[in-house]
Amino acid sequence: NLTRAGGEGFSPVNDDGLLVSGGKLMYGLLSKKSVGATSSGIIHIIFNEKGPEVAMKFFNGAQTVVNYWLLHNGFSIGIGDTIPDRGTIKQIEDAVNKQKEDVAVITQSATANELEPLPGMNVRETFESKVSKALNKARDDAGTVTEKSLKDLNNATQMALSGSKGSTINISQMTAVVGQQSVEGKRIPFGFKYRTLPHFTKDDYSPESRGFVENSYLRGLTPTEFFFHAMAGREGFIDTAVKTAE
């Protein structure tokens, strides 16, 4: 008999690909990619090669097996699935702080009239573009760190990888950083005179003032972060309502 090297528990999530031979699953995992409503998926192939009756039997059989498993094992998700370890928290903070330092340098060069405009942009547009790029990188880097730290048996990760609900972005926002909030594709604009909210000084172009949410949903948002998040959320709701009406 073959044995697997290494003491870690094996997870089929890491299998690269999917192979069914002689009606047996040799390796791989049946996820939304293979069982979902996609062309060249397993159901598509069964229908084309074996006909509608066999495809129907597969549907019924797969559903019975999954329901039986859930009945005996259950599947749940809790706050514990979103709590990172101390090392991960430190890496997330480092990733965010590094990009915030870069933003401070960009802001300093713009204030001193030393910022070179990018092709087709003026200095203000260049500044906004570079700052947005840095802050998006902060969110992405923090998300990558989080993904690596969560185990394969983490319930939130299992949901995202199987394609049943949620995505890796949802997990990183719950665990690491919510990230930059935007309205009409730009950072939060100055709604008051020279500032976004009365809680900030005038002409404050810092990430916090312009809608960068440094906290995760787990840690909780500050009042100003919550307000900026509500602004971006409102835009999403309106878009959905307008599209429905159309």
TrEMBL record:
Keywords: DNA-directed RNA polymerase, Nucleotidyltransferase, Transcription, Transferase. Its EC number is 2.7.7.6. GO terms for biological process: DNA-templated transcription. One of its GO terms (cellular component) is RNA polymerase II, core complex. GO terms for molecular function: DNA binding; DNA-directed RNA polymerase activity. InterPro entries: DNA-dir_RpoC_beta_prime (IPR045867), RNA_pol_Rpb1_3 (IPR007066), RNA_pol_Rpb1_3_sf (IPR042102), RNA_pol_Rpb1_4 (IPR007083), RNA_pol_Rpb1_5 (IPR007081), Rpb1_funnel_sf (IPR038120). Transmembrane segments: none annotated. Residues 13-82, 107-213, 220-246 form the RNA polymerase Rpb1 domain. This is DNA-directed RNA polymerase. The lineage of its organism: Eukaryota, Fungi, Dikarya, Ascomycota, Pezizomycotina.
